[in-house]
Design goal:
two-stranded antiparallel ribbon, single chain, TIM Barrel, 15% strand, ten-stranded mixed sheet, DNA polymerase, domain 1, alpha/beta
Length: 366
Amino acid sequence: MVDRTKTLNSAAGLTLDDWTSLLKSEGHPNFRSRQIVEWIFDKRISDFSQMTNLGQPLREWLAAQFTASDLETVMVTGSKDSTRKFLFRLADKRLIETVLIPANQSMFGEKSDRRTLCVSSQVGCAYDCKFCASGLAGFTRNLTAGEIISQVLSVEQEAGERVQNIVFMGMGEPLANFRNLSQALEILNAPWGINIGARRMTVSTSGLAPQIEKLAQIPMQIRLAISLHGATNEVRDQIMPVNKKYPLERLFQALEVWRENKKQKITFEYILIEGVNDGLDQAKFLANRCRSVNAKVNLIPYNTVEGLQWKRPSVNQQKAFLQVLIEAGVQATLRHEKGHDIAAACGQLRLQEETKEGTIAEAAIK
């Protein structure tokens, strides 16, 4: 059923069932709902007046009730053959970031022949990971399902090409916005929607154990990535406050539930930070964690963020850390540098723009 207070203003955020229910309440036949989603997701028509197989009164009603797009493009950095970052302005003037990764690259270090879009799920983030730019301007609110879907539609329009993979690794904690995330996943996956295979969508979380267990019950074979960044509670506590609420023991209980319900291999994201979590002892602990749940590792050299103290380890230290994992029989990759020159660390471009516009203080208060 449509939540009129939160999703009615965004045409992209409604499911087929939502449209059917809504149009029925307005006295329209069921087939109109399929016509509308075909215009929005297949034909990519955002102007309701162009939906020519709908009657004029219905088109006028749609235009009065819904926004065709939730996003305004503020800035695009990068080039067509490299990682591109899009800075979007929402209807309430807040900013979010979306990153398009070209077909010859991957979020997980391997080569890929498909374009990947890294989408945001919140304006800012409340989880305060100590190495991340997303939370520096504070947490403002969750994104609606429509705002999540609009990132895909807007980037595809700007780039002139379709996206084949979706990763929820942009601004925010996706599992803290569970309802809207679930609705967006349905629209992204559905044949009447964006029609992206479930196995080509990855949800990344800092470790919200109960929500991982809840996500495991969704009947889609989506993938899961854990922002681990520390293989012991002592190290993880220093940089990820969420670990104090859901320590590694509780997190790995949730991962066992995930494995009971999903077939895909779990990915551990591990940002290498000099002098914090890059020691070879941590590599050995990490190898043991991986073997316990048959997980693979994506090692990511730290992206410098203005205002934060952290540094990336030397290339030799990165390679030594990787070698420990490989020798332990763990599937692991070391991500090559992508986006370091376009402020690609999550939230960094938004932070710079809101600082310039003078809205960062207000956001941080909220």
